């Protein structure tokens, strides 16, 4: 009943007058948990770049492969910031398929994600899945809540998937990542994907950014050099910083329609020594 009450309260707090990245991502993936304002901006973006839904699926497929790989390295704890609306398989399902005792904490700031958190909290009997409603900037609140489920004296895989391009340098993108990295024990991993202008014509990247900004959203596609800065002090694992489709493709299945499509995202996994 407590979870149901939280869901109803969350639904009452949803701002349907402004698009939200989590709901737009849901629309790109073919989900139903979005609103006309999200679909409107989504349709504008797809009208300009019809491959965007495929790119979204390629990004999510990277997350699946990276979590599968990290769990295969013995990591049993995961902190996923910027979770988005549940779309199976979710991160905990991938991790617990490798290790049923995996412990996962999800975090997002969109009330609609909280409203659907019940779907995120159904894990294996051996494992633990938790959710915290918080903004990515509020790292203190995220870590305080996560410590109730995760042991930060042991390795944790920190997942920041398709999040940081919605946070500008001026708004503290690098600082919030540093605070989260500082909390991790040696042997932990950072898993990240990020939109970049490097794979597409400058004019096209600028148009996409302008459409997001016209919808009231920050969009800061970062170059490879700026993306690499997030990993300072960490040891990249092979193959290093690459396009999403090039990160260990053998660990998953190809995304339908990805042939001749560039994901438009840099990805990497790096270890804290």
Automatic annotation (TrEMBL):
Q: Which residues form a coiled coil?
A: none
Q: Which domain of life is it from?
A: Bacteria
Which stretches are transmembrane?
A: none
Leader peptide range in chain numbering: none
User: Which biological process terms from the Gene Ontology are attached to this UniProt entry?
Assistant: methylation
UniProt-listed Pfam families: Methyltransf_19
Alphabetized InterPro entries for the sequence:
SAM-dependent_MTases_sf (IPR029063), SAM_dep_MeTrfase_SAV2177_type (IPR006764)
| Membrane found in the keyword field | no
Instruction: List the Gene Ontology MF annotations in alphabetical order.
Output: methyltransferase activity
Going by the UniProt record, its keywords in alphabetical order are: Methyltransferase, Transferase
Instruction: Provide the protein name.
Output: S-adenosyl methyltransferase
